[in-house]
Amino acid sequence: MEWAGGGNASVELFDPRTIHEFELELGSSAQSALERNPYSYVEGRFFWNGQEIPVGVRLKGSSSMDGFRGKPSLKLDFNHIVDGITIQGQKKLNMHNMRYDPMKVSEELVYRMWREANLPASRTGYARVTIDRIDYGLYSLVEVPDDPLLEGWYDDPNGNLYENVANYCDFDGGRPCFEAEEYDEGNHDALDRMIAAATTPDGGMDALATQLDWDRYTGFLAMEASLAHWDSYSFDQSNFRWYHEPTADRWSLIPSSTDLGFGYRPWSYPDCGLHGVDPGTYTMGIVSARCWEDLECEEAVLEKMLAAADRLDAMDAVTELRAATDHVRDAVYDDRRKSTSNSHFEEHIDCVETWLAQRPDEIREWVADRRAE
């Protein structure tokens, strides 16, 4: 059953230049249930484009978790009550409160830069949200990494998709480090082979190279390092997903938590461009550490970093930043539940603009120095 416009492309839903109007009805008992058990779905009603749709709702997030007295991030499951319902091809939808993003467009820009590098990444949009007739302000809409995303990026979307269960949990932690979000293969055999390859005693890249989608993996590492997307696999060993494509029998990474891109870490620094900006520090994950130690893998990453620098120049990243923030500015200013001030919104835009303007040349200089070592 298809609602609200139809079509797997989700063009309307994930148009970042449209701010949708979403309404949710939960009721006090459902809200109280979520406060007690935030990751268990409750029943609600979702209103959009003149449609009323039954929906499962739960809270989401870890450090960004918030309750209904604040501004909760939410996951909607359109199949939770009535099986087969989709919203423009989407079975689920993430709604993020953007708690840690002062300028409110980091997810839009970082995911877009990933996709323009021809790498799997979520689409994004925006909505003003009311819950039980109370205004909760502006949310980012982020495509959930499940069937529609996999179908759009992989020749074979019927593989297993794994999310890390905790920070610093990698292949050396075995199966307990991975939660299967998609389990179409019906077994963990491919994961077991990847664990074995990643934990071989010699510690080299040879065993891993036969397991990886080489182009996508090296591209992923290059994007992490180029965009200072530190809250990810190779720097902080957090917020990442591995997908196994069965037909090719190859693994690749899918990004998440891109609200902390551009070197911004709100717990440590007041501004952007200070945390995780050195590409040489993206060595934490087992696969990444081995890649930097392997001349062929390293060179592939360096080439893709230079390509990332060229794309930033070609897309005029500063102009794109200004266009994105101009689009959401009124909604940001009107949002009384946001966790950052309007002045911080403007200051962070200026900071990221400066950082993006200089980043392509910084990348090129770093690559040149690395090759000269």
Descriptive report:
With 373 residues, the protein is an alpha+beta fold. Helix content is 35%, strand content 21%. The protein has ten helices and 13 strands. A hairpin with a 4-residue loop joins strand 12 and strand 13. The longest helix is centred in the last third of the chain and has 31 residues. The chain is globular and about 60 Å long. The N and C termini lie far apart (58 Å).
Side by side, the strands of the main sheet go 2-3-4-5-7-9-8
The general outline is globular
Radius of gyration: 20 Å
Annotation field: number of helices = 10
Q: Which stretches are low in confidence, meaning pLDDT under 50 for 5 or more residues running? A: 1-8
Helix content, binned percent: 25-40%
How would the blueprint of this fold be written?
Layout: E1 2-3, E2 19-25, H1 28-36, E3 42-48, E4 51-60, E5 73-77, E6 86-87, E7 92-96, H2 106-116, E8 124-131, E9 134-143, H3 147-153, E10 160-164, E11 178-183, H4 189-198, H5 206-209, H6 214-226, E12 240-245, E13 250-255, H7 286-293, H8 295-314, H9 317-334, H10 342-372
Parallel strand pairs: 1-6, 2-8
Antiparallel strand pairs: 2-3, 3-4, 4-5, 5-7, 7-9, 8-9, 10-11, 10-12, 12-13
Helix pairs in contact: 6-8, 8-10, 9-10
